[in-house]
Design goal:
It is a single chain. The protein has 93 residues and is α+β, with helices and mostly antiparallel strands. The protein has a single domain (2-92), classed as TT1725-like (Alpha-Beta Plaits, 2-Layer Sandwich), CATH 3.30.70. The chain is 38% helix and 38% strand. Strands 2-3-1-4 form a four-stranded antiparallel β-sheet, covered by helices on one side. A hairpin with a 6-residue loop joins strand 2 and strand 3. The protein is elongated.
Length: 93
């Protein structure tokens, strides 16, 4: 069993309230859940309106498959939000 986890740090400069941030995050998380077979959630900085940290995890029996899923989700995030990706932390177990 191979477990891949990824934490994506984003900055959304145009967001001016937590309500706006929640709408952006909820929309992005729902889209990721519908398109990919991963567990995803906002994992840090919930009270900072310009910072978004989304974590997702996938499980497979092969490392290349886990890497492929992570890459696909990261590309999806980049294409489907105006937020800027600041950092990505990937861990394969």
């Amino acid at each position: 069993m191979v477990i891949g986890s990824c934490k994506v740090y984003l900055t959304a400069e145009w967001v001016f309230s937590l309500k706006e941030k929640r709408m952006v995050v909820k929309s992005l998380i729902d889209k990721i859940k519908n398109k990919f077979n991963v567990s995803v959630a906002e994992v840090e900085k919930q009270d900072i309106h310009k910072s978004i940290v989304i974590g997702f995890v996938c499980v497979s029996n092969e490392t290349p498959h886990v890497n492929s899923i992570i890459d696909n989700v990261l590309n999806f995030i980049e294409r489907n939000t105006d937020a800027v990706i600041d950092d990505v932390q990937i861990e394969i177990l």
